[in-house]
Amino acid sequence: DGVRRYLQLPADQTVLILHAKVAQKSYGSEKRFFCPPPCVYLTGPGWKLKQEQIKGKSRRKPHIIGSSHMETQKLNFEDCAKALYISDTEKRKHFRLVLKLFFSNGQEIGTFYSKLIKVISKPSQKKQSLKNTDLCISSGSKVSLFNRLRSQTVSTRYLSVEGGTFIASARQWAAFTLHLGEDLTCSHCTRGEFPLREGYIHYGSVVQLICTATGVTLPPLIIRKVTKQYAMLDVDEPISQLHKCAFQFQGSDGMYLCLSTEKVIQFQASPCPKEANRDLLNDGSCWTIIGTETVEYTFSDSLACIQDPVSPVPLITMLEVRRAFRLVVLCAAFVNLAQGWPTCDLEPPAALQKLICCSLYRHRLWGWSYRC
């Protein structure tokens, strides 16, 4: 009955962690804070159900760092997130962020980890080699774009979307899927299509930016390398993390994506009189590009109503369902959440192995032979 109720009305709870793929190391007294700062979103109907359960046991109204019954809720810890940095004494080349969540009544929700973040000393100024793909940006990957007027940290603005419109925000950032397009002079592009292709993004390529949260899309753009506030029109090297770049509207005569306070506008660049392969930009047209990661944890404790933390939550990247294995998938999916199976590439707990074996034997599917 519990499983049937869950399938009819899934009370899933999802934790989304968004963060940058790289972090620049600080040196001396200069602190290079994470940019963009990590942020966390809660989605799914299970959060409201859990709040109602706790409210029924306590007179105090529960909340999770700011109460909200919206479908998607952003957790507000911006002051803490914006103060994160890597010290110059740190020797590790990679690290993870650790997020611990609690309800306001003290009940622990669980511990959640980000993906690996690479530590770099500074943005690479050398031409990137595709042999070292850690710092290259590939088609279909997610990126964030930010702008700093006069290179001042306090003036940082992130390209974002609000109300279906592109904005430059000092408070929130959005992840964009960066797609590499085919030659847009081809015939079928006149119908508004954008044929995609795989590969690493090079300067001079035609790209498209799609907001991962809203699906709002910018027109096709040509990505240009920026050197000393000039857009370089003849550079075709691979793009690297934290590079400064500009986005020229495809088919335009020097029109670039630009910010003006919190508005996103088009800026008409001036051709360089001495060098024809350069366009002179303003501060608002120079963007810094950085790859981003999203890790998603989805769980539900509506069946068991347990008080223990849900972590570690298994991260299932693929499920291969066969007729004989249909029962195995169900057993694994539900017991994982109760027992806390760390990752999908580790051996399952002994109790889970025994349960799978007994289930298979009882239903005469594979006898005692099983594969996990």
TrEMBL record:
SMART domains referenced in this protein's UniProt entry, alphabetically: BTD (SM01268), LAG1_DNAbind (SM01267)
Gene3D superfamilies named among the record's database cross-references: 2.80.10.50, LAG1, DNA binding domain
Residue ranges of domain Beta-trefoil DNA-binding in the record: 135-287
GO CC aspect terms: nucleus; transcription regulator complex
Key words, A-Z: DNA-binding, Nucleus, Transcription, Transcription regulation
GO molecular function, one term: DNA-binding transcription activator activity, RNA polymerase II-specific
InterPro entries: Beta-trefoil_DNA-bd_dom, BTD_sf, CLS_fam, p53-like_TF_DNA-bd_sf, RBP-J/Cbf11/Cbf12_DNA-bd, RBP-J/Cbf11_DNA-bd_sf
Localization annotation: Nucleus
Sequence ranges assigned to domain RBP-J/Cbf11/Cbf12 DNA binding in this UniProt record: 14-134
Pfam family, one: LAG1-DNAbind
SUPFAM superfamilies: DNA-binding protein LAG-1 (CSL) (SSF110217), p53-like transcription factors (SSF49417)
Domain of life: Eukaryota
Family stated for the protein in its record: Belongs to the Su(H) family.
Protein's UniProt name: Recombination signal binding protein for immunoglobulin kappa J region like
Taxonomic source organism: Gopherus evgoodei (Goodes thornscrub tortoise)
Gene: RBPJL
